[in-house]
Amino acid sequence: MISVVEHDERRRAAAKCAGCGRIGIVHVWPDGTHKPLGQTTFCDCPDPTLRLLEEEREAGDDLP
């Protein structure tokens, strides 16, 4: 499993944009909501779909 850091009610995790493949760090809340850390987005896609890398690993997808 990819390591994450606990912080209050949220944690940090690596995520990848499904459109362009760019990887960045996001905050993840207990309800599953996730947003890029310290910015509104980490890629230039008009409507990025971010997937947590730990979800891809659990699904059996290849990691970059």
Concise account of the structure shown:
This protein is mainly β. Helices cover 11% and strands 34% of the residues.
Helix and strand topology:
Elements: E1 6-7, E2 10-17, E3 23-28, E4 34-36, E5 50-52, H1 53-59
Antiparallel strand pairs: 1-2, 2-3, 2-5, 3-4
Characterise the protein shown here.
The chain has 64 residues and is mainly beta. The chain is 11% helix and 34% strand. It has one domain. The protein contains 1 helix and 5 strands. Strands 1, 2, 3, 4 and 5 form a 5-stranded antiparallel beta sheet that branches. Strand 1 and strand 2 form a beta hairpin. 8% of the residues are buried. The model has no long low-confidence stretch (mean pLDDT 80).
Binned, the helix content reads 10-25%
Total number of distinct structural domains: 1
Note the run of SSEs as H and E.
EEEEEH
Sequence stretches where pLDDT stays below 50 over 5 or more residues: none
Report the biggest beta sheet as strand number plus sense, adding barrel if it closes: 5 strands, antiparallel
- What is the radius of gyration computed over CA atoms, rounded to a whole number of angstroms? 11 Å
Number of helices in the DSSP assignment = 1
Described by the principal axes of the CA atoms, the overall outline is: globular
- Average of pLDDT: 80
Number of DSSP-assigned strands: 5
| Intertermini distance | 15 Å
Q: Give the structural class.
A: mainly beta
Strand content: 25-35%
Keywords:
five-stranded antiparallel β-sheet, 5 strands, 64 residues, single chain, mainly beta, 11% helix
